[in-house]
Amino acid sequence: xxxxxxxxxxxxxxxxxxxxxxxxxxxxxxxxxxxxxxxxxxxxxxxxxxxxxxxxxxxxxxxxxxxxxxxxxxxxxxxxxxxxxxxxxxxxxxxxxxxxxxxxxxxxxxxxxxxxxxxxxxxxxxxxxxxxxxxxxxxxxxxxxxxxxxxxxxxxxxxxxxxxxxxxxxxxxxxxxxxxxxxxxxxxxxxxxxxxxxxxxxxxxxxxxxxxxxxxxxxxxxxxxxxxxxxxxxxxxxxxxxxxxxxxxxxxxxxxxxxxxxxxxxx
Amino acid sequence: xxxxxxxxxxxxxxxxxxxxxxxxxxxxxxxxxxxxxxxxxxxxxxxxxxxxxxxxxxxxxxxxxxxxxxxxxxxxxxxxxxxxxxxxxxxxxxxxxxxxxxxxxxxxxxxxxxxxxxxxxxxxxxxxxxxxxxxxxxxxxxxxxxxxxxxxxxxxxxxxxxxxxxxxxxxxxxxxxxxxxxxxxxxxxxxxxxxxxxxxxxxxxxxxxxxxxxxxxxxxxxxxxxxxxxxxxxxxxxxxxxxxxxxxxxxxxxxxxxxxxxxxxxx
Amino acid sequence: xxxxxxxxxxxxxxxxxxxxxxxxxxxxxxxxxxxxxxxxxxxxxxxxxxxxxxxxxxxxxxxxxxxxxxxxxxxxxxxxxxxxxxxxxxxxxxxxxxxxxxxxxxxxxxxxxxxxxxxxxxxxxxxxxxxxxxxxxxxxxxxxxxxxxxxxxxxxxxxxxxxxxxxxxxxxxxxxxxxxxxxxxxxxxxxxxxxxxxxxxxxxxxxxxxxxxxxxxxxxxxxxxxxxxxxxxxxxxxxxxxxxxxxxxxxxxxxxxxxxxxxxxxx
Amino acid sequence: xxxxxxxxxxxxxxxxxxxxxxxxxxxxxxxxxxxxxxxxxxxxxxxxxxxxxxxxxxxxxxxxxxxxxxxxxxxxxxxxxxxxxxxxxxxxxxxxxxxxxxxxxxxxxxxxxxxxxxxxxxxxxxxxxxxxxxxxxxxxxxxxxxxxxxxxxxxxxxxxxxxxxxxxxxxxxxxxxxxxxxxxxxxxxxxxxxxxxxxxxxxxxxxxxxxxxxxxxxxxxxxxxxxxxxxxxxxxxxxxxxxxxxxxxxxxxxxxxxxxxxxxxxx
Amino acid sequence: xxxxxxxxxxxxxxxxxxxxxxxxxxxxxxxxxxxxxxxxxxxxxxxxxxxxxxxxxxxxxxxxxxxxxxxxxxxxxxxxxxxxxxxxxxxxxxxxxxxxxxxxxxxxxxxxxxxxxxxxxxxxxxxxxxxxxxxxxxxxxxxxxxxxxxxxxxxxxxxxxxxxxxxxxxxxxxxxxxxxxxxxxxxxxxxxxxxxxxxxxxxxxxxxxxxxxxxxxxxxxxxxxxxxxxxxxxxxxxxxxxxxxxxxxxxxxxxxxxxxxxxxxxx
Amino acid sequence: xxxxxxxxxxxxxxxxxxxxxxxxxxxxxxxxxxxxxxxxxxxxxxxxxxxxxxxxxxxxxxxxxxxxxxxxxxxxxxxxxxxxxxxxxxxxxxxxxxxxxxxxxxxxxxxxxxxxxxxxxxxxxxxxxxxxxxxxxxxxxxxxxxxxxxxxxxxxxxxxxxxxxxxxxxxxxxxxxxxxxxxxxxxxxxxxxxxxxxxxxxxxxxxxxxxxxxxxxxxxxxxxxxxxxxxxxxxxxxxxxxxxxxxxxxxxxxxxxxxxxxxxxxx
Amino acid sequence: xxxxxxxxxxxxxxxxxxxxxxxxxxxxxxxxxxxxxxxxxxxxxxxxxxxxxxxxxxxxxxxxxxxxxxxxxxxxxxxxxxxxxxxxxxxxxxxxxxxxxxxxxxxxxxxxxxxxxxxxxxxxxxxxxxxxxxxxxxxxxxxxxxxxxxxxxxxxxxxxxxxxxxxxxxxxxxxxxxxxxxxxxxxxxxxxxxxxxxxxxxxxxxxxxxxxxxxxxxxxxxxxxxxxxxxxxxxxxxxxxxxxxxxxxxxxxxxxxxxxxxxxxxx
Lengths: 267, 267, 267, 267, 267, 267, 267
Prior knowledge:
7 copies of one chain form a homoheptamer. The first copy, chain A, is of the alpha+beta class. The first copy, chain A, has helices at about 10-50, 55-85, 90-95, 100-125, 190-210, 245-260, and strands at about 130-135, 140-145, 150-155, 160-165, 170, 180-185, 215-225, 230-240. Chain A is about 55% helix and about 20% strand. Chain A is elongated. Chain A starts with 8 loop residues before the first helix and ends in a 6-residue tail after the last helix. Chains A, B, C, D, E, F, G: InterPro entries: LSM_dom_sf, MS_channel_1st, MS_channel_C, MscS_beta-dom_sf, MscS_channel_2nd, MscS_channel_C_sf, MscS_channel_TM-2, YbiO_bact. Chains A, B, C, D, E, F, G: It is a multi-pass membrane protein.
């Protein structure tokens, strides 16, 4: 506990002015370099995009990452210099209390996990800015990919900040054609063959009308056989992110077709 | 176990008076410096805000944080000086019992986790005082952001104290326009095209009446196709925190419009 | 395993009498000092409270904590002196079996966690004696705050002992005005504007009658739009701990008003 | 692996007879000392109880604990002497295989956790023999409190053995007056003021008849407002462990009173 | 990686014959000693049981445990001798690769946990062979108690092998009288006093007829007060393992009595 | 990072040809030895089975295990020799980076856990190839038992690969007679004695017809007493794996008997 | 913190140009070697497949793995050379801060787990590219198997990236014939023998019509005996991945047959 006494408290106060000036200069320098660096990186990526050498999603991913790395390295250097300014030797402080060291080691563990995981997410291109993904219980559009955190904007407008270490199983919904699936419940007393015929007709008409549909839609058969209701399943392949619209159109068309075919039932 | 004997118990008692006086002085000093420091920090931030160089939420966040850091450092110095006063060498006590040391190291681990996580939450601006956020199972308005704990006030008035280490996935609902979503259940025997036409008309009128709506509202289609009920979905983009009011107005307007269009049904 | 032989078993038995006397003296001393200390602390706090320098809840919190710390330190000193009496060197016993040491280190870890967490709960004033809080799955009134355990009395009379390490997310319901929320279900065939008018009238009358209401109550709109039922929400701000009474009064007044307005329905 | 060869196997066999006799003497001694010690402890506590210096629950708790500690210490000494008899140095065996040592250290960790937790449960008087408690998913009457395990007898006769380390959050239902709570469902068409009047009358009569009721019972108001049913809540304070009987009596009296007041409804 | 080269591969092959013979002798010896030892242990316990010095359950528990310990020690000695035969020094192999050592230490940790827990389960007599117990999600009759695993036979015939480390909270249903509990649902329009009278009469007759009932059965009152149904609870104390039969007889007798008392209702 | 420079890159390329030949020879050798060894082991076990010295399930278990151990040891030797070929000293690589070593140690921990657990599962004969078992959430027939993984084929044809470390609580359904349990729901207005008489008659007839039934079936009494339905339970002991068929036959026979006895009810 | 000062900052800037050129050359080299290597590997596997020495699934698995390993090794070498270029000794940086080292060790642990698990998944052929598998909560067709991550394409088009360490229990649905299971609910008043006869007839006809059925389908009996409904189960063995189609055909055929047999019921 002597490290408190060994300091020349009086001297500290007299030196405070000098220190303060140095501190202000450093803070100013930090903000100048930071804004300069940011501008340069953004400028470089803007040029990069013009040449179309990368997909837009990937380019945005790399830009947000580069800005992120730049900011973190700057913070780290700034932090070390501030400590240096005060003639404090943080390692001595830590070494003196091995207990604290152990605690810090464990505490920082999460941070390293974030960076290691983040590195592999990017290397393996598991997600790009603009992708629609599901991670644990969150789903939405990737807004920013950072060294430590990934930002996902869900459809209701909420912005989720997820530490990379929590991103283990990534479900990326923006990698290829999607499937539209509609389950139709019909009363059990209807004739099955007739029902399937009507539904398939609607499917064929819808396929002709919607260019977003890539395959099908087709009636694949009876999915569930209840005593009062039968569930018939219709499946189609659609362009990415168009699956919901196709499902809604299919539901409306099937509803209209069934109302036309069995008008009595609804009165 | 000899460290109990080696003390001059008699001397301790005679010195107790001197110690007590020193102790009282230190406690007084602690409270004086604390209240002084608090005032200065608050004063500085008040000036800061006048110049409008930061958003109000961010300024409040930084103020509560600065107060927090100041209080913790003061407590730490005070704690070390008290120990010093009693000529106790806590490190010897600890080193003598390596077991205790290990235990303390693990015990303090949570504290370090809190500070590391808290630091990054602030650095990445994941939340500001006044934001409406969801963290694990708690949601509410951020009231204070500290080095170790974040305080969230939920809408029913409860104040939640959440250690920063528990703040992993932050869902911030105050970052951009929000979506208002209303699901309308209508009887299956209604004509679909007519229904959609009426609903869209209500939407257009509401959009004209409410300036908080930024986009839509629009009927996006049939969401669910039951045998007795059909669910039609309406979506709008609104100003932040205005989504609930827009939803309530939409529900009321749609209800009134449907009652007008199908008056028989309700008798 | 020779430490069992190396003892002078005969001598131990002859010395047993002397030891027994010492032991009895120590136990007596322990109980005398304990009861004396307890009285002094209680006396000091009684004086403290008279001067009203602290809120009652905070004063009780500090009193129960001081008694707690005093008791633990006394137990620790007593425990060490007993060991000393028997000329046993517990550290040697432990060091001799490094395995046991490791186990003890891990075992004591929970205890340190309790104390560290307890310290910060108190420092940050997360809870005071008398507060109504929710911690994990327990809720009730804080009865005692200790260095290791916090006692919560739930409304059915059960006393919960919760180790401080389990108190991570504290939801304190005694920090500010609370919200009373009443959801009214009305049949879907009723006229919405009329309903809202009646409900708002009841709200205004209740607000006039109950001084515990600080703001509102107000009908905020339609919360849910079913095919046979509509849910209308009423919200008010009330004094702390008065929210349930306000909700019950509101429910009764609204029920009476609706019965008066639509007498037929109930027959 | 040479420690198997270095033994004089032949000598071991010739010495086996001597060892066997020693072993039998030790086992006999163990059982004699054990039963003697048990008797003495029980005798001492019987005297203790006569003098009424402790509550019965607390006395039983201390007795079961003292017997427990005595048995464990005896087992430990017996175990070490048996090992000593065979000239085996267990520490060498362990040290020779550091891997095994590590494993044992971790394995014994749970045992230490049990003892540390058990010590604090007793020190803080969280439970006594005879208390009705809930621990994790088990509830019942505490039958025995040990250094390592606590035994709880649930009402269906099952005896639960719970290691102390699993006893974290203790809910003790035997610390003070309990609350009896009865929710009465009444049809929505009834007049509210009349209903509350009848119920309060029953409450007052029951309070007069049952001396176990310490406060109330009182009708506190409408708890839930359904479209066909209304829930009215009645609350009372009762003597400990009498809450269920009071609830049952209240239910019967209320049922009888409502049948008398509205005789038509039940036909 | 030189430990592969330094072996005299040719010599190994020529020595293989000698080794093989040694190996076969050792395997034969292992099986002979094993079956001999097993027979002796079983014989000893058979004699032991004749003298009735222990309860049968406890004797079976100790027998299965002794066989278990004998088998494990034999396996361990056999394993070490096989390694010795091949002139392999396993510790060198392990020490050479500290990484492997660490892994093995952690891997064996579970095994040590099993043995430590198993030891205390037996010492504290938490379960005996033949007891009906519940452990985590398994319940059944204990069939065998081992040093590492406990076998439980559930009533549907499945045999569960549970590592002792997973046996934390033991619920033993074979320790004392059990409670039989029957809840009777009666229509809300019945007269309560009459119902209770009839039920108590059935209870008294059943108590006279069944000697397995030790106390009661008694009608303890109304457990639940619904608008259309009332639940009346009957409780009895029975001999161990007879609770289900008593419950079934009570249900049948009550059903018959109610059919006799209210014959109209069932047509 | 100098180990990259110190290599004679040119020499590496000229030596590549020699290395490649060596490598090919080794790979060929590996495949030859592997297929040879596999054949010999299978041949030995085929002979073994002819002599009927082991049950078929146990023999298959041992065969799949022996093949497994052989394959793993071969892979290990092959792996070490490949490394040796390239003059790489893996231990140096690892030792140079202690961090990597630590990580590998932790990573390999799971593998050791698998082998240790697998060893005890086999030693204690918890499962054999062909047994019907339940492990965590998977159930099916054991297809292969390996040193690291166990393969279970569920009844729908899926093959589950389960690492042995995940096999903690094993529920083996192939160890002894099983219980068939059928719950019959009958309307509450039926006469109980008559019902039980009819059911017991069906049970006796079924017992005579099905040789797979070893004991019973018997009507054990009323399991549940509802206001409109009564549940009567029938229990039988059957041969292993025949329980489902017995249950189905019992259900059919009871249904037919009840239809015959109460013909009106079904029209 | 002196490592920042000891650098010749001026020299660094002058050397920056040289470094930049080196850096660009290295990056170019990296991309050239990478694309070259990729092409060669793909070419080799294309030839490999022509010779049909491996199943297609296995060949794709090995190809994706080889590309993966190649890419990771290249990245590692590139990363080390970049560090070397800057004359940075990363190990010194790490060693200087033992705390960081510890953290990195723990952080990298997950990566090693991935590789170890991935290695065994491949060695034991638990899955191949093209297999239909279930892993934790994800199911779909395996698209790529990597050293660190496995990609699964679910049927709705989503691509799941799963770190190998999360692949513990693999359920592979592409290993052998599958079972089709259809449960038919029939009204309780039907004659059971007649129902089973009709269903078995449909099964036999379907078996004749569908070549994908390998065994059955057969009516195995009554699965559930309700008071108003009876559930009859039909089971068949089918070719892999054809089970759903067989189930759908069976449902349709059974529905048609029942409608023909009991025409009245549906009107």
